Write the C-alpha coordinates for this entry.
Amino acid sequence: MKTTATPSARVIPAYLRALPPLVTVLMIGALLWHGTVPERSNPHDYADLRAFAGIANFGDVVSCLGFLLVSIWGASYLGALRRLGTAPAAWNSYAVFLASLAFTAVGAGYYHAVLSDASLLYSRLPNVLMLVGLISLVRAETAGQPNDNRFLLAGLAAAVGSFVWYSVSKANGKADTGPIYLIQFLCLVLIPLWQAIYKAPFADKVAVYCALAMFLLSQVVGGRDAQILQATGWISGHTIFHLFGTAAAAPIVWNMRRRVLQAKAQALVAPAAAVRKAA
Protein backbone atom coordinates (compact mmCIF):
# COMPACT_ATOMS: atom_id res chain seq x y z
CA MET A 1 0.00 0.00 0.00
CA LYS A 2 2.46 2.67 -1.14
CA THR A 3 1.47 6.31 -1.27
CA THR A 4 4.06 7.40 -3.83
CA ALA A 5 4.34 4.65 -6.38
CA THR A 6 2.03 4.46 -9.35
CA PRO A 7 0.85 0.85 -9.71
CA SER A 8 0.03 1.24 -13.39
CA ALA A 9 3.66 2.24 -14.05
CA ARG A 10 4.91 -1.18 -13.03
CA VAL A 11 5.34 -3.76 -15.77
CA ILE A 12 3.00 -6.59 -14.81
CA PRO A 13 2.34 -9.47 -17.23
CA ALA A 14 -1.15 -9.39 -18.71
CA TYR A 15 -2.03 -12.85 -17.42
CA LEU A 16 -1.31 -11.73 -13.84
CA ARG A 17 -3.32 -8.54 -14.24
CA ALA A 18 -6.22 -10.66 -15.54
CA LEU A 19 -6.10 -13.05 -12.56
CA PRO A 20 -8.11 -10.99 -10.00
CA PRO A 21 -10.98 -10.24 -12.45
CA LEU A 22 -11.00 -13.91 -13.47
CA VAL A 23 -11.17 -15.06 -9.84
CA THR A 24 -14.02 -12.61 -9.23
CA VAL A 25 -16.00 -13.93 -12.21
CA LEU A 26 -15.40 -17.53 -11.12
CA MET A 27 -16.58 -16.83 -7.57
CA ILE A 28 -19.70 -15.09 -8.86
CA GLY A 29 -20.32 -18.05 -11.14
CA ALA A 30 -19.85 -20.48 -8.25
CA LEU A 31 -22.42 -18.55 -6.20
CA LEU A 32 -24.91 -18.58 -9.06
CA TRP A 33 -24.36 -22.31 -9.52
CA HIS A 34 -24.78 -22.97 -5.79
CA GLY A 35 -27.93 -20.91 -5.46
CA THR A 36 -29.41 -19.57 -2.25
CA VAL A 37 -27.24 -19.37 0.86
CA PRO A 38 -29.83 -19.33 3.67
CA GLU A 39 -29.25 -17.51 6.92
CA ARG A 40 -29.46 -19.43 10.15
CA SER A 41 -32.97 -20.24 11.31
CA ASN A 42 -32.91 -17.66 14.10
CA PRO A 43 -30.33 -14.93 13.39
CA HIS A 44 -31.10 -13.26 16.74
CA ASP A 45 -30.32 -16.32 18.86
CA TYR A 46 -27.29 -15.29 20.93
CA ALA A 47 -26.00 -17.06 23.99
CA ASP A 48 -25.34 -14.15 26.33
CA LEU A 49 -28.55 -12.23 27.02
CA ARG A 50 -27.51 -10.95 30.44
CA ALA A 51 -28.24 -7.33 31.27
CA PHE A 52 -26.03 -5.02 33.32
CA ALA A 53 -26.39 -1.39 34.37
CA GLY A 54 -29.74 -1.28 32.59
CA ILE A 55 -28.24 -2.37 29.26
CA ALA A 56 -29.79 -5.47 27.69
CA ASN A 57 -27.36 -8.03 26.24
CA PHE A 58 -24.57 -6.05 27.88
CA GLY A 59 -21.55 -8.03 26.64
CA ASP A 60 -22.52 -7.97 22.97
CA VAL A 61 -23.51 -4.29 23.13
CA VAL A 62 -20.51 -2.86 24.96
CA SER A 63 -17.97 -4.91 22.99
CA CYS A 64 -19.00 -2.92 19.90
CA LEU A 65 -17.32 0.18 21.34
CA GLY A 66 -13.95 -1.12 20.19
CA PHE A 67 -14.91 -0.43 16.57
CA LEU A 68 -15.57 3.21 17.42
CA LEU A 69 -12.27 3.62 19.27
CA VAL A 70 -10.25 2.22 16.36
CA SER A 71 -12.21 4.42 13.94
CA ILE A 72 -11.39 7.55 15.96
CA TRP A 73 -7.75 6.47 16.14
CA GLY A 74 -7.62 6.08 12.37
CA ALA A 75 -9.45 9.33 11.67
CA SER A 76 -6.70 11.18 13.53
CA TYR A 77 -4.29 10.28 10.70
CA LEU A 78 -6.51 11.09 7.72
CA GLY A 79 -5.47 14.72 7.55
CA ALA A 80 -1.78 13.86 7.72
CA LEU A 81 -2.13 11.24 4.99
CA ARG A 82 -3.80 13.77 2.72
CA ARG A 83 -0.99 16.27 3.33
CA LEU A 84 1.53 13.55 2.49
CA GLY A 85 -0.01 13.23 -0.95
CA THR A 86 -1.92 9.98 -0.56
CA ALA A 87 -3.69 9.26 -3.85
CA PRO A 88 -7.39 10.29 -3.82
CA ALA A 89 -8.63 6.77 -4.56
CA ALA A 90 -6.68 5.37 -1.59
CA TRP A 91 -7.59 8.26 0.74
CA ASN A 92 -11.29 7.91 -0.08
CA SER A 93 -11.06 4.18 0.61
CA TYR A 94 -9.48 4.90 4.00
CA ALA A 95 -12.32 7.32 4.74
CA VAL A 96 -14.97 4.74 3.80
CA PHE A 97 -13.23 2.06 5.86
CA LEU A 98 -13.07 4.24 8.99
CA ALA A 99 -16.57 5.69 8.61
CA SER A 100 -18.00 2.19 8.16
CA LEU A 101 -16.09 1.08 11.25
CA ALA A 102 -17.75 3.84 13.29
CA PHE A 103 -21.18 3.03 11.89
CA THR A 104 -20.57 -0.65 12.70
CA ALA A 105 -20.03 0.31 16.34
CA VAL A 106 -23.28 2.28 16.50
CA GLY A 107 -25.32 -0.04 14.31
CA ALA A 108 -24.19 -3.30 15.88
CA GLY A 109 -24.54 -1.87 19.37
CA TYR A 110 -28.10 -0.80 18.62
CA TYR A 111 -28.94 -4.12 17.01
CA HIS A 112 -27.71 -6.14 19.98
CA ALA A 113 -29.67 -3.92 22.34
CA VAL A 114 -32.98 -4.63 20.60
CA LEU A 115 -32.38 -7.83 18.52
CA SER A 116 -34.89 -7.41 15.71
CA ASP A 117 -35.08 -7.99 11.96
CA ALA A 118 -35.46 -4.25 11.42
CA SER A 119 -32.25 -3.40 13.32
CA LEU A 120 -30.18 -6.22 11.80
CA LEU A 121 -29.47 -4.10 8.74
CA TYR A 122 -27.73 -1.45 10.90
CA SER A 123 -25.30 -4.10 12.12
CA ARG A 124 -24.49 -5.99 8.94
CA LEU A 125 -24.44 -3.33 6.23
CA PRO A 126 -21.70 -1.10 7.75
CA ASN A 127 -19.60 -4.22 8.30
CA VAL A 128 -19.77 -5.13 4.60
CA LEU A 129 -19.10 -1.51 3.60
CA MET A 130 -15.99 -1.65 5.78
CA LEU A 131 -14.76 -4.69 3.83
CA VAL A 132 -15.44 -2.86 0.57
CA GLY A 133 -13.35 0.05 1.83
CA LEU A 134 -10.47 -2.30 2.63
CA ILE A 135 -10.68 -4.11 -0.73
CA SER A 136 -10.77 -0.80 -2.56
CA LEU A 137 -7.84 0.54 -0.54
CA VAL A 138 -5.57 -2.36 -1.41
CA ARG A 139 -6.58 -2.25 -5.07
CA ALA A 140 -6.03 1.51 -5.26
CA GLU A 141 -2.51 1.12 -3.92
CA THR A 142 -1.60 -1.88 -6.04
CA ALA A 143 -3.56 -2.33 -9.26
CA GLY A 144 -5.62 0.87 -9.43
CA GLN A 145 -5.20 4.38 -10.80
CA PRO A 146 -4.49 7.12 -8.22
CA ASN A 147 -7.54 9.23 -9.11
CA ASP A 148 -9.94 6.48 -10.13
CA ASN A 149 -12.78 6.02 -7.62
CA ARG A 150 -14.92 3.82 -9.87
CA PHE A 151 -13.94 0.58 -8.16
CA LEU A 152 -14.83 2.02 -4.74
CA LEU A 153 -18.18 3.28 -6.00
CA ALA A 154 -18.92 -0.07 -7.67
CA GLY A 155 -18.03 -1.88 -4.45
CA LEU A 156 -20.31 0.33 -2.38
CA ALA A 157 -23.12 -0.26 -4.87
CA ALA A 158 -22.51 -4.02 -4.68
CA ALA A 159 -22.63 -3.93 -0.88
CA VAL A 160 -25.92 -2.04 -0.84
CA GLY A 161 -27.26 -4.30 -3.58
CA SER A 162 -26.40 -7.41 -1.58
CA PHE A 163 -28.59 -6.15 1.24
CA VAL A 164 -31.40 -5.16 -1.09
CA TRP A 165 -31.32 -8.72 -2.43
CA TYR A 166 -31.23 -10.12 1.11
CA SER A 167 -34.21 -7.97 2.18
CA VAL A 168 -36.27 -8.86 -0.88
CA SER A 169 -35.51 -12.56 -0.57
CA LYS A 170 -36.31 -12.50 3.15
CA ALA A 171 -39.62 -10.76 2.47
CA ASN A 172 -40.41 -13.58 0.04
CA GLY A 173 -39.77 -16.17 2.74
CA LYS A 174 -36.30 -17.41 1.74
CA ALA A 175 -33.54 -15.07 2.92
CA ASP A 176 -30.45 -15.32 0.71
CA THR A 177 -27.16 -14.17 2.26
CA GLY A 178 -25.07 -15.38 -0.69
CA PRO A 179 -24.06 -11.96 -2.09
CA ILE A 180 -23.08 -10.76 1.39
CA TYR A 181 -20.79 -13.74 1.92
CA LEU A 182 -19.43 -13.32 -1.61
CA ILE A 183 -18.03 -9.90 -0.66
CA GLN A 184 -16.39 -11.43 2.41
CA PHE A 185 -14.77 -14.20 0.34
CA LEU A 186 -13.58 -11.70 -2.28
CA CYS A 187 -11.95 -9.70 0.51
CA LEU A 188 -10.03 -12.77 1.68
CA VAL A 189 -8.93 -13.76 -1.83
CA LEU A 190 -8.40 -10.56 -3.82
CA ILE A 191 -6.43 -8.59 -1.23
CA PRO A 192 -3.53 -11.09 -0.87
CA LEU A 193 -3.66 -11.70 -4.64
CA TRP A 194 -3.22 -8.02 -5.52
CA GLN A 195 -0.47 -7.60 -2.96
CA ALA A 196 1.39 -10.60 -4.33
CA ILE A 197 1.02 -9.63 -8.00
CA TYR A 198 2.03 -6.01 -7.52
CA LYS A 199 4.67 -6.75 -4.86
CA ALA A 200 3.27 -4.61 -2.06
CA PRO A 201 5.75 -3.48 0.63
CA PHE A 202 6.40 -5.97 3.42
CA ALA A 203 4.91 -3.73 6.14
CA ASP A 204 1.69 -3.37 4.15
CA LYS A 205 1.44 -7.14 3.75
CA VAL A 206 2.00 -7.68 7.47
CA ALA A 207 -0.76 -5.21 8.36
CA VAL A 208 -3.26 -6.72 5.94
CA TYR A 209 -2.44 -10.35 6.75
CA CYS A 210 -2.84 -9.65 10.47
CA ALA A 211 -6.19 -7.99 9.74
CA LEU A 212 -7.39 -10.93 7.65
CA ALA A 213 -6.19 -13.44 10.27
CA MET A 214 -8.15 -11.64 12.99
CA PHE A 215 -11.19 -11.53 10.70
CA LEU A 216 -11.01 -15.30 10.19
CA LEU A 217 -10.59 -15.91 13.92
CA SER A 218 -13.64 -13.74 14.58
CA GLN A 219 -15.70 -15.96 12.29
CA VAL A 220 -14.50 -19.07 14.12
CA VAL A 221 -15.35 -17.85 17.62
CA GLY A 222 -18.60 -16.25 16.43
CA GLY A 223 -19.77 -19.65 15.29
CA ARG A 224 -19.14 -21.08 18.75
CA ASP A 225 -21.10 -18.52 20.71
CA ALA A 226 -22.82 -20.76 23.27
CA GLN A 227 -19.93 -23.24 23.60
CA ILE A 228 -17.48 -20.50 24.58
CA LEU A 229 -19.90 -18.97 27.10
CA GLN A 230 -20.46 -22.39 28.62
CA ALA A 231 -16.71 -23.04 28.79
CA THR A 232 -15.73 -19.67 30.27
CA GLY A 233 -18.85 -18.88 32.26
CA TRP A 234 -18.42 -15.13 31.70
CA ILE A 235 -17.85 -14.26 28.03
CA SER A 236 -19.59 -15.52 24.90
CA GLY A 237 -18.22 -16.37 21.49
CA HIS A 238 -20.09 -13.47 19.92
CA THR A 239 -18.62 -10.96 22.34
CA ILE A 240 -15.15 -12.27 21.43
CA PHE A 241 -16.24 -12.03 17.79
CA HIS A 242 -16.60 -8.28 18.27
CA LEU A 243 -13.23 -8.04 20.02
CA PHE A 244 -11.46 -9.92 17.23
CA GLY A 245 -13.28 -7.72 14.72
CA THR A 246 -11.81 -4.69 16.47
CA ALA A 247 -8.40 -6.37 16.42
CA ALA A 248 -8.82 -6.94 12.67
CA ALA A 249 -9.22 -3.21 12.01
CA ALA A 250 -6.35 -2.13 14.26
CA PRO A 251 -3.45 -3.25 11.96
CA ILE A 252 -4.83 -1.11 9.12
CA VAL A 253 -4.78 1.95 11.37
CA TRP A 254 -1.35 0.95 12.70
CA ASN A 255 -0.12 1.02 9.10
CA MET A 256 -1.59 4.50 8.65
CA ARG A 257 0.29 5.63 11.76
CA ARG A 258 3.50 4.00 10.55
CA ARG A 259 3.36 5.93 7.29
CA VAL A 260 2.75 9.25 8.99
CA LEU A 261 5.60 8.74 11.48
CA GLN A 262 7.92 7.52 8.74
CA ALA A 263 7.19 10.62 6.65
CA LYS A 264 7.84 12.89 9.65
CA ALA A 265 11.15 11.16 10.32
CA GLN A 266 12.19 11.55 6.69
CA ALA A 267 11.25 15.23 6.80
CA LEU A 268 13.59 15.74 9.77
CA VAL A 269 16.46 13.88 8.13
CA ALA A 270 16.20 15.56 4.72
CA PRO A 271 17.44 19.06 5.74
CA ALA A 272 20.46 17.62 7.56
CA ALA A 273 21.31 15.50 4.54
CA ALA A 274 21.04 18.57 2.28
CA VAL A 275 23.43 20.52 4.54
CA ARG A 276 25.97 17.68 4.51
CA LYS A 277 25.75 17.47 0.71
CA ALA A 278 26.27 21.26 0.36
CA ALA A 279 29.28 21.10 2.66
Observations:
- Residues 237-278 form the longest helix (42 residues).
- The mean pLDDT is 92.
